[in-house]
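Bug: token stream looks shifted between consecutive jobs. Job 1:
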Amino acid sequence: MAKIKSLAVFCASSKPSNSIYCEAASALGKRLAEEHITLVYGGGARGLMAEAAEACFNAGGRVIGVLPQVFNKPEVRLKEIQSELHVVQTMHERKEKMYSLSDAFAVLPGGIGTLEEFFEIFTWKQIGFHRKNIALFNINGFYTPLVSFLEKIVADGLMDRMVLDSLIIAETVDDLIERLGREETVLPDKIWDSRN
């Protein structure tokens, strides 16, 4: 049983061409319901967002949507399957709200919006803003090229190995849930050289 009580999921609001991503998002949503872990997501009615949220809700789970005002439209939100819906003013407020509601983060396949959410929450961890676990759900090897790029950043001396090692790379729902529930990785405080 995972120690976490809530999980923020960052993922695509578009429908992928490969159905394996939808199947994995649905499996994660269902598993969260079974584990009594609240799903926190971006509030959208399309793509992997909807797959995860609907599966969680339909399995009896608790779902919290966080939607920017610009997307607060009937055709965008999935209000009928949300236990709670928070409407915020900006995209940045959305991330802050999702952060405050969540014990950990899972990043499913997605586009530039998903990557932006991942990199901001990962940056927050690197600088010591939080110690919550972050996982890339590497469905069908989707994030393998990104992990290789992050390895190059470490190899070139632009990021500490400890930072990259704090990131969970999970291939299955079981692995994702089990590892997110482990002790949170503590990174050393970021110390800036005042001469730079």
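Job 2, same session, no restart:
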Amino acid sequence: MKQKSAKGIKLRNNIIVHTILAILAAIWMFPVLWVILTSFRGEKGSYVSSFFPKTYTLDNYIKLFTDTTLLNFPQMFLNTLIIAIFSCLLSSFFVLSASFCLSRLRFKLRKPYMNMAMILGLFPGFMSMVAVYFILKAIGLTEGNNVRIALILCYSGGAALGFQIIKGFFDTMPKELDEAALIDGCTRWQIFTRIILPLSKPIVIYQILTSFTAPWVDFIFAKVICRANSDQYTVAIGLWRMLEKEYIDNWYTSFAAGAVLISIPIAILFLKLQKYYVNGMAGAVKG
């Protein structure tokens, strides 16, 4: 009887937990579904009386790529993609390298640097955007195609300050790996690239995803640095302009279509890389 009672309580608890999770999932998916439906809405305007569209159309997506009276969406998409890719590569290299050095090496300014990074991390990055803008302007990176370079530098320049999570992961890896590699004649660079990184796929993938997502969705730095250079706009600025008072009525549904399109690269990147999350430390040390 006690065993049956315990099973009944466990079943009841499981039903309650899964019901709550299903409700939370539905609430989380509701705005996503609304944006997708709005992107196919045939009627124009930001004020509608029904959740589901009365008519469905692909014109909102077509308009993004054919109507350049307000914005050149393909150019903005390309600008954002280029900036995100190069920022991701540079940021990942800087963060992984700094994390390895702080985790595996011992040098004089190691602790002061970590303390400084922790203090600087308490302040949001946009507090420095005015100073950063005038520095970039002084070296001629705020006009023309140089705007892309300026944004890449902004997103990747201070990336090494965010080493805490990856350093913590590297700290869990046994130091015997480094010692054995050094005895076999490996350099520190070889240890980093041939031993530590292959065994750290989950955290490397995490870094790649976060480094790509940050510039992809950023608005503040992009808006400050791009200013009136419309040919250098990113998708975040373009979508914001679609919601301005004089454009929102004609571009609201296209804004929803743009929001769906810019989510596709993030979704593809995550789906392609998520399988590496299951890779852990199994088999890292033998004997």
